[in-house]
Structure to design on (593 residues):
């Protein structure tokens, strides 16, 4: 694999909705992963006292300082497809603004909107298209800008 | 056969239903709030779905979230347990509209029996004795005339009330004049329905209820009675079967009356017909609970039946497998409700972590619970942590076993009602079986 090949592959990877890819070519191994390796929590949260109260009602849940979990407020079926356009509301690495609709939950036939609660970039999608989800379930991760 | 049963409840009753379904080989779905993630019902079910935050109004009472949970899990039946939505006609109707079988009576039946004044009238139509009473009060003078006729005291009841709420006693005319508008105001505020009616107030009755099973084909049986007279502020604390107060004739008359009333309304499922008993062979219809009761297990122990399984089978459209002549009560059973409450502090709730927990065992002991060592009792729900039941060949043996079991029951971390039950088991009046619903008013309970 030449550098050119790697660049080409990366370009294709960037345009897709895949979070992680590993390519084997003989002895060579190439691996792309969105956001790099799972980043360790910043020191500040690691040194936080264990007894610090964590409110269960705090939403969105904070994974670390920069990455925010988007959690479902409904019980239903998850979809990222915009019924008006047939396209995804958002793809991996897309920029998102606070208040943007980023997904829907179909609850008894009614589509409920999932909105971004911060500005940032879509870092991870945690559930499959059409998957049933429960209340409080993390469905996406947004990297705050 | 149901594909999957969703249990729209929590706590010990959710566990009870899961156990029944498992024995029938039906997969189960538990729903839970965020506060109940570690509750046993969520762990025992084949699938569990979080439906909302801790407050019941946002979870266990939230109909769309529950129905949606049934939809995403593919459940085709919902067992409502007791409390929460179990006697909610709207919920029963919504289940039906979504092609989900509500394990309980139809919305129409729940509505008819849930409205106390209508229920009384319906029961009286077929000769079920009711306490002398009025229809909905529209004219205070008429109500006073009635009270004078049957002699004070009388009780003003909200037709939409229940569980001890929406009731006021009047001892004379002056008091009654004052109480009626207050009761109407309270009923409107609490139940969104201001209708109240009057009943002759029995001063020293026993609370005796008949367990009923009825199928879709008009077959009705009664599984004997339960005596639930040990109550604190209308909340039952100890129940037993059979009642130490009933003669065989009264038992049969009560059972047959309950059957007649249930058949008259075309009831299907498990239900309970509650009566007040005056200790002298006279009984009066109070209400029908259109669900499984907390205390159903005492009946199961003496009749060797499984009421929850029967309930599920009836909802699946099966015919009752038991006939009245096959049912008899054998031995004696007692239930003590072990609550997370401090009996020395006016039964104040004591939520917290059960640091150590050991349930009693041995012959004739049954414990129904959703708790385990390390479990944290959430502050949001009722305080029942376990139902402790004992069975004996006679009442004496059942009491002796209860004393033994209460002593074996070990809880650390929170205060419970165990010391209260131990004291009752030693009480002369309780042991004689001569108690009424007034028993706890005179019961002295100190730390001594």
């Amino acid at each position: 694999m030449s550098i050119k090949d790697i660049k080409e592959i990366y370009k294709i990877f960037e345009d897709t909705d895949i979070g992680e890819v590993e390519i084997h070519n003989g002895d060579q191994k190439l691996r792309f992963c969105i956001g790099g390796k799972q980043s360790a929590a910043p020191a500040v949260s690691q040194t936080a006292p264990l007894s610090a109260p964590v409110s269960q009602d705090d939403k969105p849940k904070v994974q670390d300082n920069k990455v925010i979990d988007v959690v479902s407020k409904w019980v239903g079926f998850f979809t990222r497809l915009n019924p008006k356009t047939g396209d995804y509301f958002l793809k991996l690495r897309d920029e998102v603004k606070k208040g943007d609709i980023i997904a829907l939950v179909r609850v008894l036939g009614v589509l409920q909107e999932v909105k971004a609660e911060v500005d940032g970039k879509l870092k991870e999608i945690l559930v499959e298209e059409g998957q049933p989800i429960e209340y409080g379930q993390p469905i996406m991760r947004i990297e705050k800008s | 056969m149901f594909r999957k049963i969703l249990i729209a409840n929590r706590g010990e009753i959710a566990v009870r239903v899961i156990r029944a379904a498992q024995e029938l080989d039906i997969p189960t779905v538990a729903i839970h709030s965020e506060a109940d993630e570690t509750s046993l019902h969520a762990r025992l079910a084949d699938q569990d779905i979080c439906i909302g935050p801790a407050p019941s109004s946002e979870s266990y009472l939230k109909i769309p979230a529950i129905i949606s949970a049934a939809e995403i899990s593919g459940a085709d039946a919902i067992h409502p347990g007791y409390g929460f939505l179990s006697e909610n006609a709207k919920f029963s109707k919504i289940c039906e509209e979504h092609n989900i079988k509500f394990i309980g009576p139809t919305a129409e039946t729940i509505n008819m029996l849930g409205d106390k004044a209508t229920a009384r009238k319906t029961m009286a139509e077929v000769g079920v004795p009711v306490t002398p009473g009025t229809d909905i009060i529209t004219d205070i003078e008429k109500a006073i005339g009635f009270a004078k006729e049957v002699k004070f005291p009388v009780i003003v009841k909200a037709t939409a009330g229940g569980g001890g709420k929406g009731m006021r006693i009047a001892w004379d005319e002056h008091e009654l004049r004052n109480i009626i508008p207050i009761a109407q105001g309270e009923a409107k505020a609490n139940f969104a329905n201001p209708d109240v009616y009057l009943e002759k107030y029995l001063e020293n009755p026993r609370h005796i209820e008949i367990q009923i099973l009825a199928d879709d084909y008009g077959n009705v049986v009664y599984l004997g009675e339960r005596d639930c007279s040990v109550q604190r502020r209308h909340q039952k604390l100890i129940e037993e079967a059979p009642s130490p107060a009933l003669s065989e004739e009264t038992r049969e008359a009560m059972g047959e009356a309950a059957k007649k009333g249930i058949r008259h309304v075309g009831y299907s499922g498990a239900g309970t017909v509650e009566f007040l008993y005056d200790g002298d062979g006279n009984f009066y219809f109070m209400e029908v609970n259109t669900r499984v009761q907390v205390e159903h297990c005492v009946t199961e122990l003496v009749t060797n039946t499984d009421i929850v399984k029967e309930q599920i089978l009836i909802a699946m459209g099966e015919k009752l497998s038991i006939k009245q002549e096959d049912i008899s009560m054998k031995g004696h059973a007692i239930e003590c409700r072990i609550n997370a409450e401090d009996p020395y502090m006016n039964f104040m709730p004591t939520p917290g972590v059960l640091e150590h927990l050991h349930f009693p065992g041995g012959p004739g002991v049954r414990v129904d619970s959703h708790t385990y060592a390390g479990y944290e009792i959430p502050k949001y729900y009722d305080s029942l942590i376990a139902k402790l039941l004992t069975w004996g060949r006679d009442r004496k043996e059942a009491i002796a076993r209860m004393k033994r079991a209460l002593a074996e029951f070990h809880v650390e971390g929170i205060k419970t009602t165990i010391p209260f039950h131990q004291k009752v088991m030693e009480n002369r009046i309780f042991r004689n079986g001569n108690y009424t619903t007034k028993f706890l008013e005179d019961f002295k309970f100190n730390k001594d």
User: Anything to note?
Assistant: The longest strand of chain B covers residues 220-232.
